[in-house]
UniProtKB/TrEMBL annotation:
Residues 1-18 form the signal peptide. Keywords: Signal. The lineage of its organism: Eukaryota, Fungi, Fungi incertae sedis, Mucoromycota, Mortierellomycotina. This is F-box domain-containing protein. It comes from Podila minutissima.
Length: 381
């Protein structure tokens, strides 16, 4: 009996010596509460705070034995809980994880001795002190992650693969104010869909693989919007509506800046993979629209929020027949005055032989008969 007691005392002393090197600061209160509550649901004596406690290594094993069913299940539940914690606590947890993992791996032999000691003691002291049994094997195929954040916290490989999915969409009305600008800027390389309105103040964007871009009266300067379009050649959907749309014609003319207009036009000519484009900028002209159509052969939806003057479209016998057709376009939205553009509009519509939906913002005086005659494929007006 004395010999067994001496072995237990020596093992405990060895574990305490190894654990004394733990110098990491405690986690935030919310994150700590999550790991503690989830840990105790797995192991009633869970304690990852007291570095000199008898079950410290056993508790850490739930977090750092990566790839095991126990750690996967633990990190899934803990990650779901942490999702509601302040972002500063979550970032601190992720930042310290690699260093803690290395410390645990370096000290792992002591952890294994501690588990054997717990198993030995469970036969002579009390069953509650035994190390928790391994979960049944069927848990290897019954892992149901609660959400994306929980999956990201499982291991480094999952973090690298899934983090881009977490940041795929940035919509300022939902995210601005909840996500610090510095973090949003740093993660903007992962953005694939970007929606900016008047809500967000400008912050640096480093996106280069955007596929959906919407600038709706946003505070981002026009030049910065244009630069972002130039930096993202994969854009498939573009919605660009500026505050200039609210100005009356006289104000629009006064506000017109040649360099600014050239910047916007150059940006609109940059994409070549557009399937959908809506533009609300009063200085766009017909030849700008033609360039967009010619550079995007897969374009299906075309919308022009600002008034477009079509009076300069030449008739076919005057050379206008060489501009179209554009068979890919199926939906068309136009802000055109029928009174000023009736003949030109009919010529314009002939460029779209497969048109299915036509919307006219200004329908006063429109001839339905003429539209039907020209747009025989249109199902809805």
């Amino acid at each position: 009996m004395k010999f067994a007691t001496a072995i237990v005392a020596a093992a405990v002393a060895a574990v305490a010596s190894a654990q004394s090197a733990w110098t990491f600061p405690p986690e935030g209160p919310c994150v700590a509460a999550c790991t503690d509550s989830v840990g105790k649901s797995f192991f009633p004596l869970y304690d990852d705070v007291d570095s000199n406690g008898p079950f410290f290594f056993t508790s850490l094993s739930y977090t750092f034995e990566r790839g095991t069913p126990t750690t996967i299940a633990f990190m899934s539940q803990a990650g779901t809980c942490m999702n509601s914690c302040p972002i500063t606590e979550q970032n601190s947890y992720r930042a310290s994880y690699p260093l803690k993992l290395k410390w645990y791996q370096d000290s792992k032999p002591a952890a294994l001795r501690r588990r054997r000691l717990a198993h030995f003691s469970s036969r002579t002291i009390h069953p509650s002190l035994a190390a928790p049994p391994s979960p049944p094997k069927h848990l290897q195929h019954a892992f149901h992650p609660q959400d994306l954040v929980a999956c990201i916290l499982v291991c480094r490989e999952w973090h690298q693969v899934l983090t881009p999915l977490l940041w795929e969409l940035y919509f300022d009305r939902a995210h601005y104010g909840k996500i610090p600008d510095a973090i949003a800027s740093r993660q903007s390389t992962h953005f694939r869909r970007l929606h900016l309105t008047e809500t967000a103040k400008p912050f640096p964007l480093h996106s280069t693989r955007l596929r959906v871009v919407a600038f709706s009266y946003c505070q981002l300067p026009l030049k910065d919007c244009a630069d972002l379009i130039h930096a993202n050649p994969e854009i498939a959907e573009l919605d660009w509506t500026t505050h200039h749309l609210f100005l009356n014609p006289a104000q629009q003319q006064e506000d017109r800046d040649a360099e600014e207009v050239a910047t916007v036009r150059a940006a609109l000519e940059r994409p070549t993979r557009l399937r959908k484009v809506f533009v609300g900028y009063p200085h766009i002209q017909l030849y700008d629209v033609v360039k967009i159509l010619k550079k995007n052969p897969a374009l299906r939806n075309l919308g022009l929020w600002s008034e477009l003057y079509l009076g300069d479209i030449p008739a076919e016998e005057e050379g206008g027949g060489g501009i179209g057709p554009f068979p890919s376009v199926q939906d068309l939205y136009l802000n055109v005055s029928w009174e000023k553009n009736s003949k030109a509009l009919l010529r314009f519509l002939r460029w779209f032989p497969n048109l299915e939906l036509l919307k006219l913002a200004r329908q006063e005086g429109c001839s339905a008969e003429a539209l039907v005659r020209v747009c025989g494929s249109v199902a809805r007006f």
